[in-house]
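for the writeup, i need someone to sanity check this before i put it in the appendix. the sequnce is what the collaborator sent (i think, or maybe the updated version? ugh). structure was predicted straight from it, no edits. if anything looks off just tell me and ill rerun, i have time this weekend
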Amino acid sequence: MKEWESNIRRVEPYVPGEQPKISDVIKLNTNENPYPPSPAVKEAAKKLNINDCRLYPDPEVSDLTGAIAEFYGVDKDQVFVGVGSDDVISMCFLTFFNSDKPILFPNISYSFYSVWADLYRIPYEKQPLDKDFKINPSDYYKDNGGVIFPNPNAPTGLYMELDAVEDIIRHNQDVVVIIDEAYIDFGGKSAMDFVNKYENVMVVQTFSKSRSMAGMRIGYAIANKALIKALNDVKFSFNSYTMNRTSIAYGVASINDNEYFEKCVNKIIETREAAKKSLTELGFSFPDSKSNFIFATHKSVPAKEIFEKLKEKHIFVRYFNQPIIDNYLRITVGTDEEMSKLMDALKEIVA
């Protein structure tokens, strides 16, 4: 090894779901919304002035933080935005998890958590889910340097009731507790009320799933003003202009169209529940998903075999080749038509 090679920071990177290079596919592998963004976003696009691209965007992202604050009924200074919730959570790791004690998160969860911890040299311990894939709050009673977990969890789709969430918070009031709610709009109740009740709680959400804007990369965190200021201090030490003008304009338009948002979410929930019935009839079982995906295993046909045969039919779902969950498939909820084609394909495969 050359001298300079020894100074390279090496991490095992996060591997996102496959993005097919062909167009004739049913793409149910990355939890994208099957419906377009709000029509208000299209109108916002028409109003964009291409000449403004020569100008830097507002570093404080005031229009978007203001719109998010109004939507949730919080102060503008309680909102932080970033390039997708991945960027927001990465900044949270860098900002809040700086003790010598390990941070805690579930062993079956969003796999980016361990990547960020390794990248920033943060010690961590994964807490095992129980046999039903549920988080046990008592596993988080131990001494630690911070806590993060998704609710609903990914890739299981399971939602944890707010009394259990608060149980974890109550036992961790000396560290920052981050609740990753990327999928909360598809089931359950947000922990947003805990933000003003506990000064150490932060809730992170995204426009990528329920607002059909994965391509715009908009994520946000809500917390007390001290936590948000700390996040902004780190952001401005890293990159002053994280949000571009287009994303800001589209984000404002999207969050101001609540009627479309609710209509779209409700449609996905209806399709999800119908898909659960169809999958059960085909011999699949799964945790009771409250997200926009279903985490399913078949009674007799291995998940990897189903995954590969679906791919041959140009239907993409997500397969995780890792212990405990290597016989499960994560199936994004698509349109009714897409789910019908999926079920037809599965009938052939598992017959």
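The CA atoms of residues 64 and 225 lie 17 Å apart. DSSP finds eleven helices and 13 strands in the chain.
thx in advance!!
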